[in-house]
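[DERIVE STRUCTURE TOKENS]
===
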Amino acid sequence: MAEENKQLYILAGYDEASEAILAGYQNLLYDKGFVGTHTKNIPMHITLGSFPTDREEALKDLLRKLSAEVDSFEVTFNHLGIFGGARVLFAAPDTSDELIALKEKCSDSFHWTPHTTLLIDEPDVIFRAAPHVIHEFKPFVGKVNSLHLYEFFPTRHILSVNLRDTGLSGKVREMAQEEIPECTDVICRSFLTVADKFGFTPENAPRFTAFATDELRLWYHFAMEKRPMYVYALHGKIVGYYSLCPGEDGCAELNNLAVLPEFRHRGIGERLLKDCFDRALLLRQHKVKIGIVEENTVLRQWYERFGFVHTGTRKFDFFPFTCGYMEKDLI
């Protein structure tokens, strides 16, 4: 191929388990005689961007920079699809904020559908091959943990780097009644950092969450109010929590979203918040509202990143701070 037609590509790669699952579907097709015209012997991947060959050194620097700044993250594969004039059979993850953010760091192109190619061939071959994968495919949670820089064509591997390993492999799920004591500890310890930062004590703020939450209160929410309560469990340990209080007006109240201090800055709070949005919609709620310490500007800005807007404040005699209120429209 002429030099002017060569391109550089940044590819997002997977951990060993995800690679094995996706390669397994591709090998299934090979075993059935579907060889395809796609490039062989490269990692399963999501293409993040293409670039002219004179960008090689700059792209190598970019990958090294991202490897020091970006955490590995999970992606949920729920889809199989065909596109490219019915010449491409692919598996696709759900689009997530982490995936979009990584794409934006690598390329400003807006014409992008995240996918992992399983087979490229003529349409009649694709249509004959697809049922074999459809029959075997099961949704799974994979992990993006690396970046690769390649030149095509001919294929030349230039550089691979690993993203930061957060060690996260947990999930959000419903809380069980026997987990109330552990969740009480998560809430109190999490909100205690706010109390320490702003000088709240059991004497000047006895109703503040860090001091007022106990097992009896959580049991009442769980058993009597039937309030939906969820945890983030990591390696058998609960490290995050939130509860929802659905409203008859379709506005759900998010309560006590908490992450243990030693597990913060790993994306757990974001996963809990997004889970809250999804579950609120399933409960036919069109809005989520929350109360915060108004003086906690860092927390307020964090919620604003996810679409919450400030709606007002209120001062109570029993709190040495101002209560701020925020809400987010879900539809």
Remarks:
- The chain has a mean pLDDT of 93.
- The chain is about 35% helix and 30% strand.
- The chain has two domains: 3-162, 171-329.
